[in-house]
Amino acid sequence: xxxxxxxxxxxAARFFKTRTLAKTAIEGGKVHIDGSRTKPSKAVQxxxxxxxxxxxxxxxxxxxxxSSKRGPAKVAQTLYVETPESVAKREMNxxxxxxxxxxxxxxxxxxxxxxxxxxxxxxxxxxx
Length: 128
Known about the structure:
Helices cover 44% and strands 20% of the residues. It is built from five helices and seven strands; from the N terminus they run βααβββββαβαα. It has helices at 6-12, 19-27, 73-77, 84-103, 113-127; strands spanning 4-5, 31-33, 36-37, 43-44, 49-54, 57-63, 80-82. It is elongated and about 65 Å long.
């Protein structure tokens, strides 16, 4: 196997739950091969760098092996190696999100029915 479609490879490597989700992400510009935007039918080969953005997570991986079939997670992890810079960035972003969540004040009580209505009215009036 010399090359595999990028959408199939992303699905087999378990970055996306379905090929359709992988295809949508690729078409939305969330996946780049060697720094350039790609199409779902683009062939990926070992040694290429793939950058994937899923929500707030950014992965930069180097393709090690090819597979167009989805297998166990242990096998999927052998298809790529994540760059040390990518791992460090993701861990740093994770820590920042944890600290931001911890810094936010927790509400002291659950909103009453009247307070919920007031909140909904406020959101509705200010978002329109």
